[in-house]
Hints:
Elements: H1 2-18, E1 36-54, E2 59-74, E3 78-92, E4 98-112, E5 116-130, E6 133-135, E7 146-162, E8 165-180, E9 197-209, E10 218-230, E11 235-251, E12 254-269, E13 297-316, E14 319-328, E15 331-343, E16 346-357, H2 359-368, E17 375-378, E18 385-390, E19 396-397, E20 402-403, E21 408-422, E22 425-439, E23 453-467, E24 471-483, E25 490-503, E26 508-521, E27 528-540
Antiparallel strand pairs: 1-2, 1-27, 2-3, 3-4, 4-5, 5-6, 5-7, 6-20, 7-8, 8-9, 9-10, 10-11, 11-12, 12-13, 13-14, 14-15, 15-16, 16-21, 17-18, 18-19, 21-22, 22-23, 23-24, 24-25, 25-26, 26-27
Amino acid sequence: MRFYRESLFVGLAVTAGFAANPAYAQDSGSSREGRAITVQPYIEVSQILSVELTPGDEVVTFTQIAAGVDLNAQGQNSGASVSVRYERNIGYGDAVDTDTVSGIARGYLAVIPQALNFEAGALASRTRVDGGGAVSPNPLVSQDATSQTYALYAGPTLATRVGSVDLTANARVGYNRFEIDDAVTDADGNPVDVFDDSVSYSGQVRAGTRPGDVLPVGLAVTAGGYQEDISNLDQRVRDLFVRGDVIVPITPSLALTGGAGYEDVEVSSRDALRDVNGDPVIGNDGRLVTDNASPRILAFDVDGLLWDVGVLWRPSSRTSLAASIGERYDSTTYYGTFTYVPNDRSSLGISVYDGVSGFGGTLNNSLASLSSDFSAERNPVTGDFGGLVTGEEGSGLVNSLGSVRSAAFRGRGVAASYQRQIGRLNVAIGAGYDRRTFIAAAGTALEAADGIRDESYYITTSLSRNLGRNASIQTNAYVNWFDAGNANGDLTAFGASAAYNRSLTDRLSARAAVAVDYFDSDFSAEDFATATALLGLRYDF
Length: 541
């Protein structure tokens, strides 16, 4: 029964709540054999021509100056991947100058090898926002139509064994911020209270035995908590739980799981400051102004039994499935993961999630679920990071898309990523569906958002191929659909780009790229389509 002792125990952690709530999901960078460090700083200078295809025919040009660094360092007791880029677009004529910082980082350091790790991650990305929905990547658009999203988290993870008991624990602190210069409005011109910033805290402790060590079944007890403090109206999401789990082996590759426990979940906020007419006061940024003197009002309050049953299946070291269904938040819940890595050239990962959090909690969870060994896929024309990463452990997706409303929500969805190498050709695809049902207290300025359901569908792809030793091609494509829960709230964005790169010397290379982007929003009377071309040089230090 070696399989149960080494593999299904990991699956039991999933049924114990890690996948049930974005706050509890985690990934620990495992130690690696050998050491490999790659640091690649660079500068780029490019000339860009952008043509508006619809509704007008405006032509604008930019000079793009960019500097960045790509780092990948993997060792026996540490690992990290970093891709960060600063870009300055200098416009001519009616074109607007823009500054953009984008990047992603994820890493770990073994404080005590094989036992205690310290992990951290960070994200900076640019998006386009209309009516509370965000899409990314995006074409070169005016500064007042874009926003910047920032996220970071850090914390320790512990995994050790005391006699026959496996002991695991983790703690995490995260910060998230969404910056936009102008107020966001809905189809009727009313301001939408978009997310500002939040601080999140999470932690849990788990003790368990493996099947066959003490009893024929595996047993575990887990306690944990999550809190996110959202600046908009001083919202607070708090989720505490304790539970016990059992794992029952059926065959060497299959086991049934079951768990039950107690949860206490609350979502609360304060009201907005009111004017002399009793109307909420709205700040210059379009967000509601918090009345710090108002009492805290409950929007969601559930405490009582939680339970789930599930299955763990691992027919080989390359295939694993963990799936559960049960009750949380006083309603049905379901979640799980599936991974398939048939060889070192391809991999597939699927995750189904369900949890209560704010906008920031979803970002921190996406970062924490990434491997610490990856390469970031960027738009060859804009340089933007679109959320897709690739690496030896497979591809991954950071989903910062979807609704940017400030209210807390229950988020359900599925995310999938696939990576394949065929000779010199590398293909990566990320896709998913995200549904957010918002939670707001009656009698507050956010009351109208309560029960609204925003839905997002997204696909992003990357394809690259080496053409001999000195040249390569790269293509990217994306499709985003956003369906707002209120009337006339849909938006669609899709586009594609292609680039040809050729080395001129060992450090200097030239690049030519083209892109087409389309944007259709109910918040605008007309659709927008642009075609962009780029010629540039890059110097690697």
